[in-house]
Every structure is written in C-alpha cells, then in structure tokens.
Amino acid sequence: NAGVTQTPKFQVLKTGQSMTLQCAQDMNHNSMYWYRQDPGMGLRLIYYSASEGTTDKGEVPNGYNVSRLNKREFSLRLESAAPSQTSVYFCATQSGQSNQPQHFGDGTRLSIL
Amino acid sequence: RKEVEQDPGPFNVPEGATVAFNCTYSNSASQSFFWYRQDCRKEPKLLMSVYSSGNEDGRFTAQLNRASQYISLLIRDSKLSDSATYLCVVIPGGSYIPTFGRGTSLIVHP
Fold it and tell me: B7 near B104, Cβ under 8 Å?
C-alpha cells in the first residue's frame, strides 16, 4: 500500500541540465499536484491536474512543464534547470472532491549547482 | 492580507503543557479545513479535518469559527514527539485547490 510514490528521492543537477520528477499513486485519486517548498516560503503550487487529461498552472509554473500520463502518474519536468529551482518538491493527490484532504509523497530533494 | 495566516512561532513549551494555534483565512467562501503536521525535511501529513461543530482526536481538538474566519488546534498534554510544524489548510467551496498556511513551529522540551 504505497500511496504516493516519488522518484528520485535526491538529485543534483548542473545548471542547464534537464530532468523529470516522477509521481505515481495507487489511491485511485482524480486530482494530482506538484508543489515546491523553500525555507520560509511554505508550499507553493507549481501545476496541478484536476483529472486525467487536464493540467493547469499554479502559483509558480515558470520553468516547469507537466504531463498527466494516466490516472496514476503525473510528472514534472525541468527543461533547463536553474539554481533558483533548488528546492524540495512534493507531489500530492486528492480524490477530486473538495472536502477531502490531500495526500503527499515523501518528496524529491533537488539541488542545482 | 495573505489568504491563510499563521503565527510562525516557534512555540516553545514543556512536556505536559497545553498549547493552541490559530489560523485565520480571508476567503469567506472557504468550506473545507484541515490541519497537517510536517516534521523537519519530511512531507506534510494529515493530522485532522476540522468540522463546523469542532472535533477531537485524542489529545488534539480542532475548532472552526466561521464568523471570525479562523480555525484553531489545541494540543493537550504535549509530548516531545509533538515537536513539528503545523500547517493549516483551507479549500474554497467547489474548488480542489487548497491554500496552505506557512505553518506554526512547535518545540516541546523536557
């Protein structure tokens, strides 16, 4: 019963490199989200997917792209990594009903040199 | 005014103390409310939902005051293991985009 699984757990990149963060859920939830969390900033929404086949920008989408591959998987791509994207990235899911809470993966710690 | 505001703390309390946190929200259309706990460098984990009539889960009690637009979390008989950051979360009616507070840090010392 994995819940929400994020890979990788840690990654170090050089400026300009690209990479994709993966998120998979076995909770049969409709909605999926990507957040970043920086010290003193709280959680900030990057992109979300209300349901399979749809994606929308959140608060801080610049420099990122997403793909909702199927109901289970929602990936986040950094095309050309910048040091400002050094952060902890969390994927979250929610059933799709607004009165239900989100459930989080255990995060990807990304450093860009 | 931020949509969801929390006192960042830290609240530094001895074991056994009772401590309370408040969280104010600005969107009067908010319908769903939650408290999460986040340990250092870990993911947020749901602590409890907050219901209109108030609700209790062991040592934890959550309250909602719609008129004044705030929710509260009361922790009784604090344990060392309660040391964490507590995030309040608010979701407007009909939306699935939650707004997170920045969290209140709690440190329980022996």
Answer: yes
Among A25, A102, A106, A110, the residue to mutate for chain B (most B Cβ within 10 A) = A102
SS3 labels along chain A: CCCEEEECCEEEECCCCCEEEEEEECCCCCEEEEEEEECCCEEEEEEEECCCCCCEECCCCCCEEEEECCCCEEEEEECCCCHHHCEEEEEEEECCCCCCCCEECCCEEEEEC
Angle, alpha carbons A89-A38-A101 (nearest 5°): 55
Q: Does any CB of chain A come closer than 8 Å to the CB of residue B9?
A: no
Which pLDDT band holds residue A81 (cuts at 50, 70, 90)?
very high
Between B28 and B37, the higher pLDDT residue: B37
pLDDT bucket at A88, cuts 50 / 70 / 90: very high
